[in-house]
Design brief:
This protein has 94 residues and is mainly alpha-helical. 77% of the residues lie in helices and 0% in strands. It has three helices and no strands.
C-alpha cells in the first residue's frame, strides 16, 4: 500500500483473501459480518475498476508522449494494431 491507497495488485490480493473469509463466516453463522464483507468487496471492486481505467488512460498518454518524442528525434511513427504488426513481421515488411 502506497500513500494510503491500494495498488490494483493489492486490491486483487485482498479480494482473494476476502473470498476465503466469506465461506468461514457463513459456516460460523456470522451473517451480518458476511454481508458487511460482501459490501466491502463491492467497494474494492469499484476502486479496482477505477484504478484499471486510470492505468489505461495513463498508458495512452505515455504512448502519445513517446510517439511525439520519437517524432522530435526526426523519426517516423506509424500506428498499427498488434495483429497488423505480427503479420508484417511474418512477411518481413518491418
Amino acid at each position: 500500500m502506497a500513500n494510503g491507497t491500494y495498488s490494483n495488485t493489492e486490491l486483487i490480493e485482498s479480494l482473494l483473501i476476502d473470498l476465503n473469509k466469506l465461506q468461514k463466516l457463513l459456516v460460523d453463522g456470522q451473517f451480518i459480518a458476511y454481508c458487511d464483507l460482501v459490501a466491502k468487496m463491492g467497494q474494492k471492486l469499484g476502486l479496482l475498476r477505477k484504478g484499471v481505467q486510470n492505468d489505461l488512460d495513463n498508458r495512452d498518454k505515455v504512448i502519445e508522449q513517446l510517439k511525439n518524442h520519437i517524432r522530435d528525434l526526426g523519426e517516423e511513427v506509424e500506428d498499427m494494431s498488434a495483429e497488423e504488426f505480427v503479420e508484417r513481421a511474418k512477411e518481413g515488411k518491418l
